[in-house]
Design brief:
The chain is mainly alpha-helical and 494 residues long. It is built from 22 helices and five strands.
Length: 494
C-alpha cells in the first residue's frame, strides 16, 4: 500500500528528487524520535500527501515546523496518536505558504488552533474585543501593546483562514469573520490613538466622531488582503473652534492609519485607503458632517453615489454614522431621477471598460468579480430610489433583494450568485498563498497545476473551462440587462 501511495505522490510532484529527499529526511527524524508508531505515522503522512496540492512544499513546511517547535518528539507523537492533527497541518500548509510561515514562526499557535473548540466556532466580535481590552490593560508601553495587538490579529486571521481551508466555513461566513476582525481593530486603533492625541493637544473634543467603512468593508465582504476604505467624519455641532477640531480629528485619523498599517517584527494588519473621502487625496483626513454634506450636495460625482451604496459606520459614534447615511441618502438615491433611463448603466459601463484586464485576472476580466459588483450597483442605483429594499451594502444581499423585488430574474440572479461565490473563492486562494493583494492566476505550468488542485480539480484546463463558462454567462447577462436599461424597454421579457 505504501509503495502504491508513494508512486501516486511521485506522479503529482514536479520535482521527484526534491520530494524524496525531504520525505526521507522526515522519516529519518521520526525513526530517531519515536520508539513505536513509525509505520503508523508513515501511513498517515502518505495518506495526506496523496491529496495535497503540492506534496513537496508540504514536506518542506513540515521540516521547518519541526525545526522551530519546542518539542519535536511531542509534535511527532501527537501527529501519530491523533491523525486529525497531521491532516490539519498538511492541509493548511499545503494551501498557504503564508500560514505555513505563521506556524513556523510560532509553533505554539498550532496547539492553540487545534485545542478545545477553536476551529469549530466562528470568531465573535465580543471575544476579539475582550482579547484586545486585556492586552491593552496588560502592556504599559505603546510598543509592547502594538506588538501584542498584532499577535492577536495574526492569531485570529489564522483561525479564520483555517476554518475556510478545512471547509468549516463557507464564503459568507469567511467574509463576515474577516470583516468582524477588521472592525475590531479599527475600533482598537481609535481607542489607542485618542488618549495620545488628547494628551498631546491638551484638548479632548466632546463632539461625535465616526469611521465609515466603504467598499468590501462596508459591504461586510472583506477578502484576505483587502484594503480598508474609510471616510472619517466628526460633528463640530456649530462650535466656533472648528479649526481646532479639524486639526485634532485629522491627527486622530493619521494616528489610526499608522497603527493599522504600520510594520514591525509582528508584521502589519491593514492597508488603509482614505482616497474615497471628499476631495480625494487632496482632502483633509477627517471632515465635518456639514462640510461633507456641502460637498456631496454641490460637487458630488456619479462614482461617489456608487461608492456610498456600501457606506456604513464601523467604529466610533454609531448615531453620527446613521445621521450621515440619512442625510446622504437623497444624494445616492434621489427621489427625482437625475438620470435618463439607462444613463446609470452607460456611466458605469464606461467606467468599467477602463479597468478591464485579461483573462488571468479574476477581478477585472470580462465577466469577473468587478463586473458582477458593478452590475449589482447599477441596478441598485437605477431602482433604489423607488424600492428601498434593494439598498443593501453587500453584493450577495443586494443580489437576493433585486431578485425578490423583480429587477433580476431568478435564473440570472442564481447564475450571478454562483459565479460571484466561485470567483471570490478563487480570489481567496490566490491571496492566501502569500497574503498579498492579487487577483492574477498563476503563470507557470507547475503553479497552475497546484492551484487547480486547491480547487479540487486535477488539471489547469478544467479550471480554465470553469472560469470561461462562468464569466461568459455573467457577461451575457450584463450585456442583456445593459441593452434593456439603455433602451428603456423595461423588464417585460424577463
Amino acid at each position: 500500500m505504501m509503495n502504491g501511495a508513494l508512486d501516486t505522490i511521485r506522479n503529482r510532484c514536479s520535482n521527484v528528487t526534491a520530494f524524496e529527499r525531504h520525505y526521507d529526511e522526515i522519516i529519518r527524524r521520526v525513526v530517531q524520535v519515536l520508539r513505536a508508531g513509525v509505520a503508523e505515522f508513515d501511513r498517515y503522512l502518505l495518506e495526506e500527501l496523496e491529496t495535497a496540492p503540492d506534496p513537496t512544499a508540504c514536506l518542506v513546511h513540515f521540516q521547518r515546523f519541526l525545526d522551530t517547535s519546542f518539542s519535536e518528539r511531542n509534535i511527532l507523537s501527537d501527529f501519530t496518536r491523533y491523525p486529525v492533527l497531521l491532516h490539519t497541518f498538511i492541509r493548511l500548509t499545503g494551501y498557504s505558504a503564508f500560514l505555513a510561515d505563521v506556524l513556523v514562526r510560532d509553533a505554539e499557535l498550532f496547539r492553540w488552533l487545534t485545542a478545545s473548540d477553536t476551529l469549530q466556532r466562528s470568531i465573535r466580535k465580543d471575544e476579539i474585543e475582550l482579547e484586545i481590552e486585556r492586552a491593552r490593560a496588560l502592556f504599559e508601553t505603546k510598543r509592547s501593546r502594538d506588538r501584542a495587538l498584532r499577535r492577536i490579529h495574526r492569531r485570529n486571521f489564522l483561525r479564520i483562514a483555517a476554518r475556510d481551508i478545512l471547509g468549516k466555513s463557507d464564503l459568507r461566513g469567511t467574509v463576515a469573520s474577516l470583516t468582524i476582525l477588521a472592525e475590531s481593530f479599527i475600533a482598537a486603533a481609535l481607542e489607542e490613538t485618542l488618549p495620545e492625541l488628547a494628551s498631546r493637544f491638551k484638548f479632548h473634543p466632546d463632539c461625535p466622531f465616526v469611521v465609515m467603512g466603504l467598499g468590501k468593508l462596508g459591504g461586510r465582504e472583506l477578502n484576505y488582503s483587502s484594503d480598508i476604505d474609510l471616510i472619517c467624519i466628526y460633528d463640530d455641532c456649530g462650535r466656533n473652534s472648528s479649526e481646532k477640531h479639524q486639526e485634532f480629528f485629522s491627527a486622530l485619523v493619521q494616528g489610526m492609519v499608522r497603527f493599522l498599517s504600520g510594520h514591525d517584527v509582528e508584521g502589519f494588519m491593514y492597508r488603509v485607503d482614505l482616497r474615497l473621502r471628499p476631495e480625494g487625496g487632496a482632502g483633509l483626513p477627517a471632515i465635518s458632517l456639514s462640510a461633507a454634506m456641502a460637498y456631496y450636495e454641490s460637487r458630488g460625482s456619479f462614482w461617489e453615489r456608487q461608492m456610498l451604496i456600501k457606506a456604513r459606520p464601523v467604529a466610533g459614534d454609531q448615531s453620527l454614522g446613521e445621521r450621515f447615511l440619512e442625510l446622504v441618502k437623497p444624494f445616492i438615491y434621489p427621489r427625482t431621477r437625475l438620470d435618463l433611463p439607462g444613463e446609470v448603466f452607460e456611466r458605469i459601463h464606461a467606467d468599467r471598460q477602463k479597468s478591464l484586464s485579461g483573462e488571468s485576472n479574476v477581478k477585472h476580466r470580462r465577466g469577473g468579480i468587478r463586473d458582477i459588483e458593478f452590475l449589482v450597483q447599477a441596478l441598485q442605483l437605477e431602482h433604489g430610489s423607488s424600492e428601498p429594499s434593494v439598498r443593501c451594502t453587500g453584493t450577495m444581499p443586494a443580489l437576493n433583494a433585486l431578485m425578490k423585488a423583480g429587477y433580476l430574474s431568478e435564473n440570472d440572479g442564481t447564475i450571478l450568485r454562483d459565479a460571484y461565490t466561485y470567483l471570490r473563492k478563487v480570489e481567496h486562494l490566490l491571496q492566501l498563498e502569500r497574503n498579498v493583494q492579487t487577483h492574477e492566476l498563476p503563470a507557470s505550468p507547475s503553479e497552475r497545476v497546484v492551484f487547480a488542485r486547491k480547487l479540487g480539480l486535477e488539471n489547469w484546463s478544467e479550471l480554465q473551462s470553469r472560469l470561461e463558462q462562468l464569466c461568459d454567462s455573467v457577461a451575457m447577462i450584463q450585456g442583456r440587462i445593459f441593452a434593456h436599461e439603455k433602451t428603456g424597454t423595461g423588464w417585460g421579457s424577463f
